[in-house]
Automatic annotation (TrEMBL):
A Pfam cross-reference name: Lipase_GDSL
Family to which the UniProt record says this protein belongs: Belongs to the 'GDSL' lipolytic enzyme family.
Organism whose genome encodes this protein: Entomoplasma ellychniae
Superkingdom assignment: Bacteria
Name of the featured protein: Lysophospholipase
Annotated GO MF terms: hydrolase activity, acting on ester bonds
PANTHER family documented for this protein: GDSL LIPASE_ACYLHYDROLASE, PUTATIVE (AFU_ORTHOLOGUE AFUA_2G00510)-RELATED, ZINC FINGER FYVE DOMAIN CONTAINING PROTEIN
Transmembrane residue ranges: none
Amino acid sequence: MKKIFFLISSLFTIIPFKINSVAKKLDKEKNKVDNVLELGKDIDKSNAKDSSGKYKHNISNFFVIGDSLSDVNGLTTFVEQRIKALKLNAELIIKGDAYGFYKDEKFFNCFSNGPTAAFLLAEKLGIKCLKPSNIYSEGVNGFGNSYAVAGATAGKLNTNSGTFLNDVRIDIQARALIQQHKINKNDLVFFEIGGNDLAYIVKLIQIGEDYTSYLEDATERIKIALFSLLNNGIKNILFMTPPPIEFPPIFQDIMSKKEYILIKEVILLATDQFYKNIIEVLELTNEHYKNCVHLFDLYKNTDFLKNKFYKTFWFKKKKLALEMINTSATNWEEVEVELTIGEQTRSINGVRDLISLLPELIFASKKANNKILIQINSAKFNDPINFDCYFFVDKLHPNKNVHYIVFKILYKKVKKIMKHSKNK
């Protein structure tokens, strides 16, 4: 995934055209709001549409904000709409054994080998298909209900990838939702964030930089996002905490290395503090909006999730699933990238190739008015026969069976939330 974001971020850093960043503009204008009940009151809702319907459990609409755990066509749609500012016609596809799925003969981009928990939840509620949306989506017909984008954070990133990822920060996602949709009291929001923030905190500790200001900024923006939703009429939010940093294989690998032994304790303390900060924000929302924000605490329930996954298998498969529960189903470093303009296709081997080829190909594209197609293919499954036994499709993202287990947990919680909502 790191390679994927290097490639995508280079699109926004090497192309010699100016793109106006919504996040950059908002950060420049940002004034500290002391009263949490005023957060989000400045959002322009003049173009908001009423997209409500009649769904199960008296739900009038369902929205998703988050990161790659919920992203279905979110990153690809965002990149395509962002590049439109350059007057380029581009399409991004993320495929391969580990990523994406087909439904009704249509391909959906995501960072798992099947539907995410949020996508499954939407289907169960009666929403046929989650449509992606972001702050750059235009026209009422362009507005969707899923704002989750892979790589999204709560905090402001000061990195190359921050060039584009800051525009899908959690506070920006919440702002886009309120700008684009009229809110009803029976609307439901699934809100999950924090995994990428934990990763960035680890990075700051690794390079010896202060992480506390980022941790505070991420916490503040989660507060801004939640209160922006609540202050604009959202009454039902299901919040999922991120998994602990040592949960995915990539960080198990990092923290097992000799050179990280001395900073391991610092990493665990810092990431645990971020979790505690999130819980404090949730408690604050409950002080002002009682029983409107409901918690699925993934941070404290990853062992339960692994046990649940393991128990879905039988006999020999169960033994293999237990052995592979901390192992990636693919070698995620073996990402293949193809760049196609018109009928010309070239293989891209990393950022340097992309940097050297893009200006030439983009010029050809604009001249011939051809579409730029960027296809990112994950590596093949290491064990195609038993791929379902692997908890993780790569070193960071769970497989579709895990998403299904989480969906079942979320749906059970949604039923309770909406039952309680009737009495509000």
